[in-house]
Amino acid sequence: MRPVGVGIIGSQFVSSIHAEALRADPHADIRAVASPSPGHAQAFAERFSIPMVVVGVPNDLHCPIALDAAAAGKHVVMEKPLCLNLAEADRMIAACRDAGVKLMYAEELCFAPKYVRLKQLLDSGALGKPTLLKQSEKHDGPHAPHFWDVERAGGGVTMDMGCHAIEFFRWMLGRPKIETVYAQMSTNVHGARTRGEDNAILILELEGGVTALAEVGWTKLGGMDDRAEAHGSQGVAYADLLHGNAIETYSAVGYDYAVEKAGSTRGWSFTIYEEAWNYGFHAEMAHFVDCVRNDRTPQVTGEDGRAVLEAVFAAYESARTGRKVALPFESTAGKPVDLWRPPGAVKE
Q1: Comparing C-alpha atoms, which of 273, 261, 301, 6 is closest to residue 113?
Q2: Predicted confidence (pLDDT) per residue in 285-300, tens digit
């Protein structure tokens, strides 16, 4: 069977990780790259030996690119968050379904080896009946300007990183319904750069009685922090994605190394061997290639991405009202941040 041909839209941070993961899969063949930044696609193509040069995709471009790809009969892997709003999510899902192509929501935490093992512990009953899940992801701020622009990103750290935690919780528990969302958001450090929040705490109540707590922040110095906990009636397990197989590193000048680009590496940080593999990107891309080759349903679908986005909208509504928000929650807002801090609103 011929390798699956892959075109990459985007030429910077996460696209480089995707390309490295795809190159490690013998069943994938990267054939094209597109970027709106002059020279970026050419340099990317030369770096990864891609024969065609043809666009980076901030969140506001996810929907139109997915629609175009579906219309061209191409399977789609869409980075998180799925898109800016629920109407866009419905259009993307419908377009891919009608075109007979697969839409995979790229949540790499569902493929990170340490978190996969944590889920296996929970599924096996080793921890008893699950009662509480926690997930925390923090660094000192995004690596690209469009993340700070809520018109393009749709929100702040909840939209950027809280979406990871929401799908992590759903996946860990077999994707039960989210019943309620409560959120506290604040802009503590980066108010001069964004109208969005740079710290958030989310509390989700899921069907079956499990509570889930997410802590996300753009205000932590010293590199990336990513960890999870699973509590049950018969035990507890702690999984720190960056410790345990990490090299504790101190650098006065910092360094440029894969996921660490998400935060400053000056001072103490935790250098990971095979960092992209550790985060699950290799398994994620190999999974999608296998789905295309063997006509299988992706483990994380467009519908999962929509469910995450619905919870994200509920979180911003909760942060606005100070109340717990019940799901299902529908919103006609163009982007989540407008529920919490509408355009033109004065920062407190």
Answers
A1: 273
A2: 999 999 999 999 999 9
The set of residues, in sequence order, having a beta carbon less than 8 Å from that of 134 and lying 6+ positions away, is: 212, 213, 214, 215, 228, 229, 231
User: Which range, of 6-10, 57-61, 283-287, averages the lowest pLDDT?
Assistant: 6-10
Task: Give start and end residues of each alpha helix (H) in the chain.
Answer: 13-23, 40-48, 62-71, 86-99, 113-124, 150-153, 157, 163-172, 275-278, 281-294, 302-321, 337-340
Q: Which of these, 136, 176, 152, lies nearest to 64 by C-alpha position?
A: 152
Nearest to 154 by CA among 344, 316, 37, 347: 316
The answer to pTM > 0.85 is yes
DSSP class of 176: P
Ranges of each domain in the chain: 4-107, 109-278
Mean pLDDT, the chain, as a whole number? 89
**CATH fold label, 4-107:** Rossmann fold (3.40.50)
Q: 109-278, what's its fold?
A: Dihydrodipicolinate Reductase; domain 2 (3.30.360)
- C-alpha 136/C-alpha 40 separation (Å) is 33
* 186 strand-pairing partners: 199
Q: Which tokens in the block code for residue 296?
A: 């299988």
